[in-house]
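step 3/5: co-fold with manganese (II) ion
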Amino acid sequence: MYDMMSRRMLRRWSPLIGILVLCAFLLWQSGSPSQVQESRRDDWIPVRLSKDQEEYVDRRGVHVVVGHYMGDTSSDKHPPNLTDALLNTNMFDPKPGEGKDGSPVLIPPHLSTRMQQLYHINRFNLMASDRIPLNRTLPDVRKKRCRTKQIDITGLPKTSVIIVFHNEAWSTLLRTVHSVINRSPSALLQEIILVDDASTRKFLGADLDNYVSRLSVPTKVLRTGKREGLVRARLLGARSAQGQILTFLDAHCECTVGWLESLVVRVAADRKRVVCPVIDIISDDTFAYVRSFELHWGAFNWELHFRWYTLDAAELKKRRQDMTQPFSTPAMAGGLFAMDKNFFFELGAYDERMEVWGGENLELSFRVWQCGGSVEIAPCSHVGHLFRKSSPYSFPGGVSEVLYGNLARVALVWMDEWKEFYFKFSPEAQRMRDRQAIRSRLELRKQLHCHSFHWYLGNIWPQHFFPTDSRFFGKIKHKIRGECIEKPTGKGSLNQPMGPAVLTRCQDPPVLRQMFVMNLVGFNPENDKGAAIMTDESVCLDVPMKEDTSRILRVKVIACSGQSRQSWSYNSESGALKHLSSGLCLDVPEDAENGLTLNACNTYPSQQWVMESVPWK
Ligand code: UDP
Ligand code: MN
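step 4/5: write tokens
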């Protein structure tokens, strides 16, 4: 998330960044290398999930290393001595005005060593969090039109807010609770249900029970007894909920004004809607509240990792007509949403065989869409979530087993022939495939008369970049050089790959980074409508046109936008790949290592391409 957001933050939050930079500078001046300074590094490199099971991919699609943080290797291998006494101490120590209006907390330099030590406990700046009062103020980050839009809450149903947690810090957990109480109309709040998923921290026991018993909104703490994972913990909460609507939150959120009304009003108007807020960012270093983007939707990549993608031109046009209108999203991030309680259970609640963390957000998204509901984002509802770079807790059973077991279940139950595509290219998931008992979930799908995954892709996410029977899927090979086009490894905004399209040695067995997808319409030279050449992560072959036409036209891989400059057609006879808006052809220049170019179409071998199909299921 950090990586994904950093550029946007620079653009939109330059004043905030300025403060952070100043703070880093001051701390640096003081001679003590600080976390603030460390963590502003832009070179944190995403890693692939590896066999040592120390790494995973979080639900925003950011690869994180379990047990590691901030790309700093020295202290990761030798974590500071965290004694039981330290772990079990509640160090909440609020300073009036600290973190006010969502402002960043600046830790005095002499506390920097301690701050770094405490960081390891929850993988966020615990010292900063513990200095912020539970009822800190936050800015109203909504669009102006959201602020002036009156929502009539009379007669709206009440909601139970369900917050599951495992070893959460006192300050983050209770700031979540207080932000709900302080910034929700009490007429809409039935209760708050905290579900303790077998936390071991002492202060989350009787102290917590006592504390919540004094709150102005009925609040209870349920305990799973043994570690169940977030799915079964949420189920425990949902089953005991009294409200007509269930609203789920992570245990480290802060709700802003108006957040709940905008969710509840949508669910009340259509009980089959699952409604998500815009998820803003609480900085894991400073606890600054940072407003997030509204012009993206949630989906997933070929490895079934959740991603935010930019909306294409047509979708943007729809959105711009009224930016306050909720818009549908192919998938949800998972932690924060509101849903009718009866609909939740009618639809099969959650897959109880999912462990610890991961996959349940896609499972619910597919199930809701395929079985007659909808998933949407309400742009007038903003909730901050604390994003971390790594996970602080254990994954009983192994990170890889847990994650790929959960994802294998998603694929097996909901994805029809696309499950074969997933397993073919995900050996980690393939390994977990036969261990999954899924009969009852398949029965559920049958009982509910759910649509196929083909229907989902075509109707809910027509912009998707997955292979289909009416698409080419495979390598794009240069006839003479025998090399294949490859997706660049560089990341643009939102972590989407971006950079020049380059040629590399064709891989066999095929690898995803050399796979492209193109609608078959583009294969017909008579029909010059063209088609996008897409690949994983919703990126397309694109040619940014320069004003100065004498310059070389480099072919880039950029977020798919649906614009005509991403339109190509292929002539299988001549092997030409024609860029339609310029009428030029894909070419390999002498300096091939700098990427592909466009040139006037000719019949030279340098412009001859072979589209080599690869079976995907
Ligand atoms: N959680 C839980 N049991 C688990 C794992 C997670 O109760 O075994 C809770 C966790 O405390 C948090 C929520 O589930 O409130 C989502 O987990 P997390 O915040 O780690 O996920 P992320 O936001 O990083 O995707
Ligand atoms: Mn979370």
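step 5/5: annotate
The CA atoms of residues 102 and 289 lie 5 Å apart.
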